[in-house]
Specification:
This protein is α/β, with parallel strands linked by helices. The protein has helices at about 10-30, 45-50, 60-70, 95-105, 115-135, 145-160, 165-170, 185-195, 215-230, 250-260, 300, 315-325, 355-390, 415-430, 460-475; strands at about 140-145, 175-180, 205, 230-240, 265-270, 295, 310-315, 395, 405-410, 440-445, 445-450. About 40% of the residues lie in helices and about 10% in strands. Helix 6 packs across helix 8 (about 185-195). The structure holds pyridoxal-5'-phosphate. Pyridoxal-5'-phosphate binds near residues 146, 147, 243, 268 and 270. One of its GO terms (biological process) is carboxylic acid metabolic process.
């Protein structure tokens, strides 16, 4: 029996720690030798794992050996530069190491007193992040795990902002509330409405134009119609960088409507928010200063390991009003002078996440981050150009950021059903190679392939190879 009742010894911690740091470094060094998508069937990994826990202690050698033999073969390699599906998210060296320190402290930032550095670093690093993105000073930043949870809190604040006494009385005795978003808004907005008691009927999906942007006239119409039916317009969610095509809703026009009608404006910029650090991308953020809340995920495109989402909110006191509940055992002498993060949401416990963003920003510098994001956009635009120039492919949406929507379209095929079948087969063939991972969406009934450049290890050569592979496989498809 080793170290009865005690944790791992210092010597063992160092030797295993070195092994695992080496393991991680080796993994990242050789990431391109793995198939991006694992070749496993459902249940295959589970079947290799013992169904009962070990009664007696095991040594670390055997744990690491199973990591290699059982776990690694079932990993989808998000760190792989040929992971170009969804919104590729990658973790950088400094981000990974920050996670180690965070776990080493194992601080819980429920309140200021339970780790002053956790609270004060988070406050500071979010002021940095706000400055990097160029958002106005009156936005306060808060860290949540995911954009889904950030948006949930923003929409809860929008609901509290109506001053209907929902905090006390619940939803049962009030008129129907409405949230508006485009047909292309992320499903997390629907989930927030499920959670907050608005229900799916509490959402009005506003149609989009040919560029997949919310039509503001339709928004206005919907609001007036609701008002005349006694429904209370509660919140508009505009998206900068929608999930399917990365289209940008006209935030400035939407914000005028929201101000006039006194409706909370939440902006979902989970993926594209980071591009606000580039002067040439500011055009996509016009009107953002009039939003009530904005979400941006450093874990998506800023090389911070998952999870790390930032909610910027102007009326943070409303959010606090919605959620603050202080039990006796959590009252402290400093309450009037400090921020207690438990007041701003559902959860009490809070991981020391700010270290990740702090390490990443300091290690790369703002200039280094700008260069990387700018390079991703450049590479993606190159790919879009190859698609546009090719006789057998077509682009299906504008490419404002680093996501390209396209399909294979041989000249002589006009039938939409056949085109859909061919493209579905094409993406399956591509993903089966293990050399590239792409995802898809449907746009106006058209099966659409998406390619995203946002990973820290992605270079021009990867996108070149990707195009070659896609082009090559498309030529082998029979129809
Ligand atoms: C990715 C994404 C989300 C969801 O992000 P999570 O952090 O996984 O909850 C929401 N909205 C948009 C626009 C996104 O791109």
């Amino acid at each position: 029996m080793k170290n009865k009742n005690l944790d791992m010894s210092k010597d063992e911690f160092i030797s295993v720690g070195k092994k695992l740091i080496n393991w991680s470094a080796h993994y990242l060094e050789n990431i391109e030798s793995f198939p991006v998508l694992p070749n496993v069937k459902p249940g295959e990994i589970k079947n290799k794992l013992p169904q009962s826990p070990p009664e007696s202690a095991e040594d670390f050698e055997s744990i690491i050996s199973d990591l290699d033999k059982i776990i690694l073969p079932g990993i989808t390699h998000w760190q792989h530069p040929n992971f170009m599906a969804y919104f590729a998210s990658t973790a950088s060296g400094p981000g990974i190491l920050a996670d180690l320190i965070s776990s080493t402290f194992n601080s819980n930032g429920m309140i200021w007193k339970t780790s002053p550095s956790l609270t004060e670093l988070e406050q500071t690093v979010l002021i940095w992040y706000r400055k990097i993105l160029g958002f106005p000073e009156n936005f306060k930043g808060l860290v949540y795990d995911t954009a889904s949870v950030s948006s949930l809190h923003a929409i809860a604040a929008a609901r509290e902002n109506l001053n209907l006494g929902i905090r006390e009385k619940g939803m049962s005795s009030i008129p129907k509330l409405r949230l508006y978003c485009s047909e292309h808004a992320h499903s997390s907005i629907d989930k927030a409405c499920l959670t907050l008691g608005l229900g799916l009927d509490g959402i009005k999906k506003i149609p989009v134009n040919e560029n997949f942007e919310m039509i503001t006239e339709e928004l206005e119409k919907a609001i007036q119609e609701d008002k005349s039916n006694g429904i209370i317009p509660m919140c508009v969610v505009a998206t900068i960088g929608t999930t399917s095509t990365t289209s940008v809703d006209p935030v400035d026009k939407i914000s005028e409507i929201c101000q006039r009608e006194n409706i909370w404006l939440h902006v979902d910029a989970a993926y594209a928010g980071v591009t606000s650090m580039l002067p040439e991308m500011k055009k996509y953020f016009s009107g953002i200063e009039n939003a009530d809340s904005i979400v941006s995920n450093p874990h998506k495109w800023l090389f911070v390991p998952i999870d790390f989402s930032v909610l910027f909110i102007r009326k943070h006191e409303v959010l606090k009003k919605a959620f603050s509940l202080v039990p006796e055992y959590l009252k402290t002498n400093e309450d009037s002078e400090v921020e207690n993060y438990m007041d701003y949401g559902i959860q009490l416990g809070r991981r020391f996440r700010a270290l990740k963003l702090w390490f990443v920003i300091r290690y790369f510098g703002v200039e280094g981050l700008r260069e990387r994001i700018r390079e991703h956009i450049k590479i993606a635009h190159q790919f879009a150009e190859w698609i546009d120039k090719s006789e057998s492919f077509e682009r299906l949406a504008p490419t404002p950021f680093s996501t390209v929507c396209f399909r294979y379209k041989p000249k002589h095929i006009k039938d939409e059903n056949i085109l859909n079948q061919i493209n579905e087969e094409l993406i399956n063939e591509i993903n089966n190679t293990g050399k590239l991972f792409l995802s898809h969406t449907k746009l106006n009934g058209k099966f659409t392939i998406r390619l995203v450049v946002s990973g820290i290890r992605q270079e021009e050569r990867h996108v070149k190879e990707a195009f070659k592979l896609i082009d090559g496989i498309s030529k082998q498809i029979n129809y």
